[in-house]
Amino acid sequence: MKKDELLYKLYHYTSYLNYIIWLFEANMLFLLMNFPFVVLIFILDIRLGTLPILYLSSVTLIPSTYAVIKTLKNVETEPKIIKNFFVHLKMGYKRLFKLSLVFMFFLWIMVGNIFITAQLPSLQILFWLNILFLLVLITFTINFLIVMVNWKQTIKETAILTIKLAIVKSIRSNLNFLILIGTFILLKLFPIYLLMFGASLAILLCMINFKPVIDFVNRQIEEA
Questions:
Q1: How many other β-carbons are positioned within 10 Å of the β-carbon of residue 106?
Q2: Could you tell me which of 40, 30, 38 has the C-alpha nearest to residue 63?
Q3: Is 156 exposed, middle or buried (0-12, 13-18, 19+ CB in 10 A)?
């Protein structure tokens, strides 16, 4: 009995170790694919003059986030992180590059608006509105990508389902933004962990949070 218990504990700890390794690999690949953006965001001040170059360097974020989500979703059955990441990245670029251009354009427009309105006290309402729209866009994007990974649909169908879930399962859907921000704030206290696990850990936590929503949709599909 004690031997079985020991083996179970060893298996349990090994699975944790596997996830640490997988998250590290996925995070390094994510940083590699977004290296120009990561470098620029650290060396450039965010101001109107730098927004175009930040925009151009950030269009890789959405396809690479898709690749991380897709890779982590099937990691227990397909643990070859590097191979799977690049397969899914190629698919992500085919499906999402044009959409990424649009999403990132609106994101940086909002950032620019926030920069301008922050300096004009008479436009404080617009300042907070742009912050709100920015939060909505980021939350919608991560949820959209998780939905896309879980069901084969067109871009339009994926967007519609994501919007419906944001209404029906609003708490879970909106919680993902807090998870993203909270993860980076906590890991920022330990920069080495932020570098090693930041993006992949935040994405994994968003996927875990969204799992009940996925189960809900799957039940609806089975009952239909």
A1: 12
A2: 30
A3: exposed
Three-state secondary-structure class, residue 64: helix
- Calculate the dihedral angle through the C-alpha atoms of 171, 173, 177, 182, rounding to the nearest 10 degrees: 60
Q: Residue-wise over 185-207: b if at least 16 C-beta within 10 A, else e? A: eebeeeeeebebbbbbbbbbbbb
Q: Could you tell me the pLDDT band of residue 210, with boundaries at 50, 70 and 90?
A: very high
Yes or no: say if 211 and 143 are a contact pair by the CB < 8 Å rule: no
> Percentage of the chain with pLDDT > 90?
48
DSSP string of 79-132, one letter each residue: --HHHHHHHHHHHHHHHHHHHHHHHHHHHHHHHHHHHHHTT-GGGHHHHHHHHH
Contact at 8 Å (CB) between 19 and 81?
A: no
CB atoms within 10 A of CB 96: 22
Are residues 112 and 51 in contact, defined by beta-carbon separation less than 8 angstroms?
yes
Distance CA(189)–CA(216), nearest Å, equals 36
pLDDT digits (tens, 9 = 90+) for 3-19: 455 444 444 445 667 88
Q: How far apart are CA 112 and CA 34, in angstroms?
A: 21
